[in-house]
Structure of Glycogen phosphorylase:
Amino acid sequence: VWKEGLRSADEDVSSITKSIVHHVQTSLSRQAYNLDDLGAYQATALSAKDNMLLNWNETQLAYTRKQPKRAYYLCIEYLMGRTFDNAILNLGLKDQYREGIDQLGFNLEDLIDKERDAALGNGGLGRLAACYLDSSSSQELPVWGYSLRYKYGIFQQLIAPDGSQLEAPDPWLEHLNPFEIPRYDVQYEIRFYGQSERTTKGRAVWSGGQEVLAVAYDVMIPGYGTKNTNNLRLWESKPKRGFDLQSFNAGDYERAVEASNSAEAITSVLYPNDNTTFGKELRLKQQYFWTAASLADIIRRFKSLDKPFSALPDYAAIQLNDTHPTLAIPELMRILVDEEEVPWDDAWEIVTNTFFFTNHTVLPEALEKWAVPLLEHLLPRHLQIIYDINLIFVQSVEKKFPGDRDRLARMSLIEEGYPKQVRMAYLAIIGSRKVNGVAELHSELLRTTICKDFVEFFGISKFGNVTNGVTPRRWLDQCNPGLSALITETLKIPKSEWLKDLKKLQGLLEYADDPKFQKKWAVVKQTNKERLAHYVETTLGVKINTKAMFDVQVKRLHEYKRQTLNIFGIIHRYFTLKSITPEERKKTNPRVVFFAGKAAPGYYIAKLVIKLIINVARVINADPDTKEYLQVYFLPDYSVSVAELLVPASNISQHISTAGTEASGTSNMKFCLNGGLLVGTVDGANIEIGEEIGDENVFFFGHLTPAVEDLRYQHTYHPVPIEQKCPALAHVLNEISAGKFGEGQTYEPLLNTVRHHDHYLLTEDFQSYIDALKLVDEAYLDQSKWLKKSITTCAKMGKFSSDRAILDYAEEYWSIEPLTVE
Ligand code: 26M
């Protein structure tokens, strides 16, 4: 429909309404005359799915015929959000759908709101994967995603009356999911436990244990302005034979059902941790289940080409997104060596030319390790293979650096200790063709810290950088239609052109000073603020002042992200407001601060931060002296859909991690793309955003990465009392202790993290943070200058399109090429 333009828009509309009514009567078996919004949404979504299916089929047919090299993106999380709006936008049929739905007596936006988010992810990692799939299809690249079909996604966040976070399950599959296609014909048997007997030539036979079925579900990924429609394949676990018939027949029903439950448990729930703790057997089972099923699928497809295994790297590139799928490396060795009888060295050559590895964090507590006894129990053959890989690797290190025992111990895949542990990141590094970080600073830190020994061994060229990106379809056109329309009208080119070549936004620069354009720009922002205010009113029941500056910090709750710095800064601002006269207050810049984000259920300090934010908000919002000038809101249950409301409405957003801790950040890109200014530390992708848009348009503050190590050392070995180091912050902490925001005792464990050790260096950065916010206030007073900054920021964000990022991967890493589906 998109390219050929054969049918007229009218014909499109009438075929759309026909297909919606058809789905109401058939797929839903309901009557059109008493249909509610949910039913109308489902029928409409099914009709959009039909449109995508045709393109999907043609895309897969083209791949089968032309046999291009493909890339496979293995990510244990995909944070897709809603699909319907994105689907009709990418199909180029949004206007036609709006018209058709209107004719049927419904409203498009209401139906869009009926869809539940597909929230199969925690945060940045999973949302990045979703953006990359959108860009792969849009750039016509043959890329498939592989992940798990969790029955429950990230938990729903509720806030108790005392401000505590409560978690409820997210049964997102409760209703029909119109966008998935079950593939009962695509199934693989996955083995766990059992015994591995070595035979000859380094081979082994793995038998016994438990076998579980992996069943495929496909999700179509439509490209924008192209027919190319890639696939996200999600695996569901099922018992191999319903349940254990022997026990069943013997009358032992409970035992029979137990086995079936244990198989189904594997894909029952997404682990709600982000950047933290390991060790759970079920999590390891998820990882193996998913990588083994995905590899079986990839190898089956490759075998149908009838090529020798040595050609695998010419037909498949497999991207390991973080260490979660690292078991794919020993698994491919097992398939090649044990099942296909490829000699070990040849197999290793194939493996190390097929895999690529992206690291997403340098936080030491987030580097994945698995206990040797657990691996031995669950995956006995894989542990043998890991030991064999390690033996050969350590020998080659010894050859290159004779007698350097420390180096051998540092680089070994096995960390000594009780128990011994396998270092998954090292396995991913040595098993991959190339390794990359996700922003310049992060990639450089990798090369000089975690990967230092490996750089010395393999050479620098194995260690690259691909700075993250975000899809401008969802994160501008879809979430901010007003801005998108204004940009199109101003650039005087079709929307489809700049949305696929985001550098074209630069064309806005010539209008950055134009008062008429600035006015229009400001109106769009105001409308978005009102839309957000409406949402806040319906969810929290409060009216907010949309004339105030909107200041947003939304992300997972984590000590390194320093939501604490923000809330302490707010308390400081509150005290300052209280201390001045009403006349002086009138001259200040009114501010509404929004927080949102989930804390991992077991992360005690992060949950305390939420409680503090909520109780501080209560006190401040109710204070008649200050409430006109400062308001604070914590929006519960942050999600992709909530982000789509917040991002377009921000005047400033905060990205204030301790320097060197945030690998990249991607919401920083989304806010700037929507003309929100950035307050941030010199960390992750903030740095490159500053380079692109000009440091004068960013409010940077805080210590730089090279200073951090030394400052931490000082805090540990030569601590200076906080009263001396930072009196302003000390005052804030003391007031919290004294019970200004509810029982002071409650917050003591949180306050102590700052008073002692201060690992994230709040006392070091607090004053410069306050100073930066002061500059923000001053800048906001001059609206014309502010609007110029806002326009310039958006205009120079072209680099951060995920199209650029995915093309980097395609060219520099995977060696795949676009294939246009006719
Ligand atoms: C680990 C163990 C058990 C359960 C879950 C995990 C786990 C889940 C997610 C560990 C790490 C996870 O993600 C890390 C992550 O999201 N990193 C972020 O990646 C983004 C995309 O590259 C970056 O923008 C962020 O800076 C980085 O923090």
